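Notes to self after the call with IL:
- keep both proteins in one doc
- input above output, always
- annotate only the second one for now

Protein 1:
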Amino acid sequence: MLDFVLQRKHYGVAKMLIRKTAAKPDEVLESVAATGNAELVQASLDAGKPSQAGAHEPAPAFVVDVKTLEAYAGTYKSDQVPLDIKVFVKEGSLYMQATGQPEFALKATSATQFEFTLAQVVVEFDSASSFTLKQGGGSFRFKKAVTQ
């Protein structure tokens, strides 16, 4: 439930859920940290102490050149699922928005691979005109239909 609320940016509801949840503090903190919202991170720390097991410095963010990101922009379609996905650059980051869904920012892990951890989505661009979206054990190939 917390991930659902966070994805829709209902941070007030998320704070309430954090205080009431029986989830493990590590899981709550991981979900909340992905939002970048300092108040929610503090609320999760106040609600329960996360473990230190496996703690390490986070890897530095991978930076992709804006021209590369802009080359990915467009509307993509798949023969596997009846869903159009709009890919666009906003504030120097790559975003996606599926038909009828809210937009979300992707985090670069390389120049061709991006992820959205809240929904466990991994996007791998094969070229500037196609990508593979992986989620929930599925792998779906999309091809650019319209350039932005």
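Protein 2 (the one to annotate):
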Amino acid sequence: MHISTDSYYKKRLTFFKWRHESTLVNKVVLALFMAIITGFMAQIIIPLPWTPVPVTGQTFAVLMAGIVLGKYWGGISQFLYIGIGILGVPWFTGMHSGYSVLLGATGGYLIGFILAALFLGHLTDKYIRSRSFTPMLGLMLFANFALIYIPGLIGLGAWMYFVKGSMPTIWTLLVMGIIPFIIGDLFKIGGAAALTKSITPKETFSNEADMESSGKWRIF
């Protein structure tokens, strides 16, 4: 069945208007759905022998949570993911659960998930321009490598200190906690930015701060 371009644009605008104006119950359901997606993507694992931090598919889900759910609710979805996992649902990486995961080598990254989703959700809802490829690529690079990795490295360093009794060097943290993941993250970020361009409306749905000037931009 053929779907016209105009119909597609209308449907994506309708969805974002609906989720922006929806009831609390619907927003909670959407947040739980994105938490489930994050848990599913956490099971896509490539272990690395020199670090307790594996390669996973979670980053993609976290970035898209902010885009799909918008202001506050992207972050809430990741808060639910962590909270429900702590309570015993085995959807952390490797089908683990419990508070020990938050206190472990990857706990800081989990906190970063909330920050990244909050950041992207806020800007997606506030600025129409952020929904095109180039601006979103820059925002996702910042969210990934600053808002996720900085708390992640802090948490990894604290875990290593309590396990080994001494603080690791900056180079050790980089080798264990960020350098092995850069190439994979760039692919995930590029894919998430491209998907964002396709699924987000380039029209106003929530009185965006830049809605008066958005028509002057060339959307990439």
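Annotation: The mean pLDDT is 93. The beta strands are 45-46, 55-56.
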